[in-house]
């Protein structure tokens, strides 16, 4: 059995302890990574359970917002060193590094793509250390908020790895090229307030208010017309890489659709009557 298939078998083990908890309330859900004794390290069972949970939520037409967080004391310490040990031991196998590529793409990358491409609002509630792929998922969300105990940990450099699973894209857009390069080179932990100043998170709150703050963002998303939220997310993600002219053209094609909605008509009538 290849190392990739070995990892997948672990990820699909229905008898593995539950490492992901999903709590659904009305039109939102809170997804919690639950392996706190290991700082929610991304073991194969946890990753498999998370991907399947996310896929189910993404198909739920009633759901508007999804909060991703970790069981205290951490958000996620990132990749599982035990799995890395196994991967290193199998680098001489016939599949070589392609086995690692398959796990990164089909499991880690699948979750990042789902967060980015699903039209629901994803909110990362960073409650403690966030590193590696766990940090990549947080930065892939539509917005991130942090408790006062949050710590952004650039762990990949000290392992001889690169910014991964979309992290390079997120960091260069938030910090600029030189800022992202310095972030990688320093390898220094970033506390919640510094993360706020750098634009890595949108809000810092008291630790015991983190999920309440996430709920407030869910309420904001729910209060918006559903079509507007679904159309705005892909628009903003597309224009991040577009020229000014390209962004303007995307907006010009999208906006007339909103004029045909009852939500827009009601808003116009309400404003006209004021």
Describe this structure in words.
The protein has 274 residues and is of the alpha/beta class. It has two domains: 3-223, 2-enoyl-CoA Hydratase, Chain A, domain 1 (Alpha-Beta Complex), CATH 3.90.226.10; 226-273, no CATH class. Helix content is 53%, strand content 15%. The strands form two sheets. Strands 1-2-3-4-6-9 form a six-stranded mixed sheet, sandwiched between helices. Strand 2 (28-33), helix 2 (44-59) and strand 3 form a beta-alpha-beta unit. The radius of gyration is 20 Å and the shape is globular. The mean pLDDT is 89.
Secondary structure: elements and pairs:
Layout (H helix, E strand, L loop, with lengths): L2 H9 L8 E6 L2 E6 L10 H16 L5 E6 L10 H9 L8 H20 L3 E6 L2 E3 H9 L2 E5 L3 E3 L13 H20 L3 E2 H7 L4 E3 L4 H14 L2 H14 L4 H16 L2 H12 L1
Helix pairs in contact: 1-2, 1-4, 2-4, 4-5, 9-10
Q: Which structural class do the helices and strands define?
A: alpha/beta
Count of individual domains:
2
Described by strand count, sense and barrel closure, the largest sheet is: 6 strands, mixed
Q: Termini, distance in Å?
A: 69 Å
Q: How big a fraction of the residues is strand? A: 5-15%
Helical content class? 40-55%
What is the name of the CATH architecture of the largest domain? Alpha-Beta Complex
**Name of the CATH first level of the largest domain:** Alpha Beta
**Number of DSSP strand runs:** 9
- Please compute the radius of gyration using only Cα atoms: 20 Å
Strand order of the largest sheet: 1-2-3-4-6-9
Identify the overall geometry.
Answer: globular
């Amino acid at each position: 059995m290849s190392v990739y298939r070995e990892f997948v078998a672990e990820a699909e083990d229905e008898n593995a302890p539950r490492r992901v908890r999903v709590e659904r309330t009305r039109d939102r859900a809170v997804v919690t990574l639950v392996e706190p004794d290991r700082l929610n390290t991304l073991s194969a069972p946890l990753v498999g359970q998370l991907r399947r949970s996310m896929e189910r939520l993404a198909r739920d037409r009633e759901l508007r917002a999804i909060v991703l967080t970790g069981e205290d004391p951490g958000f996620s310490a990132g990749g599982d060193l035990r799995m890395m040990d196994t991967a290193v031991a199998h680098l001489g196998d016939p599949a070589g590094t392609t086995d690692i590529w398959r796990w990164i793409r089909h499991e880690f990358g699948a979750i990042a793509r789902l967060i980015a491409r699903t039209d629901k609002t994803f909110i990362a509630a960073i409650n403690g250390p966030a590193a590696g792929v766990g940090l990549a998922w947080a930065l892939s969300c539509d917005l991130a908020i942090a408790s006062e105990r949050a710590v952004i940990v650039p762990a990949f450099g000290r392992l001889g790895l690169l910014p991964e699973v979309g992290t390079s894209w997120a960091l260069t857009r938030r910090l600029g090229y030189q800022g992202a390069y310095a972030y990688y080179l320093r390898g220094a932990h970033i506390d919640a307030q510094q993360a706020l100043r750098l634009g890595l998170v949108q809000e810092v709150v008291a630790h015991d208010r983190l999920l309440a703050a996430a709920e407030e963002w869910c309420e904001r998303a729910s209060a918006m017309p559903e079509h507007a939220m679904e159309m705005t997310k892909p628009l903003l993600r597309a224009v991040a890489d577009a020229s000014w002219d390209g962004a303007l053209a995307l907006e010009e094609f999208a906006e007339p659709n909103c004029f045909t909605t009852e939500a827009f008509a009601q808003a116009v009538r309400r404003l006209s009557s004021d």
